[in-house]
Specification:
This protein is mostly helical and 71 residues long. Helix content is 93%, strand content 0%. The protein starts with a helix and ends with a helix.
Length: 71
């Protein structure tokens, strides 16, 4: 009957909406993971920059010390 068909269609639509909502939740979780990874990468780059700055300072100090030696 038409009522049964309409009920079946409504149930199928409801199932599809539920699946879509679940998929949207997974996408949101994945975006959160990407954001966390980007934050970790930014922090690692900042630490790398600190190390580079320290090495540059040490190199300058060493250059200054070595320049005091004469042949």
């Amino acid at each position: 009957s038409a009522v049964e068909e309409q009920t079946a269609t409504t149930q199928e639509m409801s199932r599809s909406v539920t699946e879509a909502a679940g998929g949207a939740g997974q996408i949101a979780d994945n975006i959160g993971g990407v954001s966390s990874a980007a934050d970790a990468t930014t922090a690692a780059l900042a630490q790398g920059q600190v190390a580079i700055d320290e090495l540059a300072s040490m190199a300058a100090g060493l250059r200054s010390t070595v320049s005091r030696f004469t042949y």
